[in-house]
Every structure is written in structure tokens, then in C-alpha cells.
Amino acid sequence: MNTTTAPFDDVKVRQAVNYAVDPEALERIYAGQIAPSQQILPRGMPGYKKFELYPHDMAKARQLIAEAHPADRSVTVWSDDESPNNEAAEYYEGVLEKLGFDATLKIVNADNYFTIVSNTSTPELDTGLGNWFEDYPTPTTSSAPALRRKHPADQQHQLGADRRPEAERRDRPARSPTARPKQEGEYAQLDRSFMEQAPWAPYGNLTVATFVSSAIDLDKVIFNPTFGQDLTSFQFK
Fold this sequence. Notes:
Layout: H1 11-20, H2 23-29, E1 34-36, H3 58-68, E2 74-80, H4 85-98, E3 102-108, H5 113-118, E4 127-128, H6 139-147, H7 165-171, H8 181-197, E5 204-206, E6 223-224, E7 228-229
Helix pairs in contact: 1-3
């Protein structure tokens, strides 16, 4: 959600969206290929500590919208044209309409999607879908694409989420190529503190099955719960 402009500059509106989005509904849309979640760090990541600030509750969501009473009810929802992302965007559009917004879905080519939503001069950048793969299985690569200010080479700038200097400063003490116990605790705190401000409505982490021949020695396969299989570890029995 674009936290720099109305209506998503109001934390109550953003929290309402988090209550309204149902991760289990999106799990069905993605045909079981995501594990439902409502936080930034995925299960299995150093620093991960499960919490659920926004259990699905449309009544609570509508109450927060009533309290916020946003004057601007017209919002544009962005997504790429790859299935099932476009179906997820349609679901999200419907959620916003149930909250009393006049939502318009704008679907663009997947090849250009992040370039378009990374450009702050693009008009009507209100809210939309975002996702990315980790470069390395560390907490930094899970949170960095959307929690830090845009780097000139970064095309994962997510629709104006809070990237003010103080927000980046809060991320800096925890950053490290490897997460030691103290840093893991800092990342857990960072995860929760950002979700209290609700710049996103996380709904799940990708889960991918790998089918192999019975000739592969599965005991030798190295698997990371957040990064997937190490293909160089696959070998014949």
C-alpha cells in the first residue's frame, strides 16, 4: 500500500486491509502453492517468530474504516497479467470494495510490472500485488526489497511503502550477511514493529514441490526451508 498518499497514509486504513485480507482464501487461489502468513519473515528463516496481528475479521476491518473515515475512496489496484497473480488481484479488488472503496483493477504486462510500479511518477500508484525471491536465505533478503529506500538499480520498489530514513535506520542494526542470535531477535522485533504499521498485507510464502526420479538419492539432497533445493546436491544412488 502506498503509505505516502491517501487513503493508505492512515494506519487504521492499512490495518483494516490486513484484517480484511484472508490468507486462506489466497492459498486457495494459488492452488496450495503458498503457505498462509501475515508477517514479513517466512517460516524457517533465522529471526522468524510467528505472530498474527490481524486474524481475518471483516467486522473489525469495517470498524477501523469507519473510525478512519477516509475522504478518498477511489483506489487503483495494480497487478501483473500472470496467473494466478491476476486472480489474486481480483480478490483484493473485491476486498477493498467490501470495505467501501471504489476499486479499479489495472493489470499490466509482467515483464514491465515492477518497472512501472517502481516509478514514483506513475499516476494512481495506490496499492497492488508484490512478490520476490530471496537472493540468499537471510532475513535481510526477505525484508530489504520493500523496507528500504529505493536503490537506483532496485526494481522491487513496492508502491511507496514507508522507506523514510528512520525506517531504514531501524533495519540497519539487525543487518548482517549471517544472522547471529542477537540479530535474530532484532529481526523478530523488526518484523512485528513494521507489521504494526501495516504497510503491507502479507498473505503467504511460496511452497514448491519437486518431483524426482526414484534413482535420485534423496538422503543426499540439501534443502533449505526458505531457499529451496540445492540442485548441486542432487545425485544418483
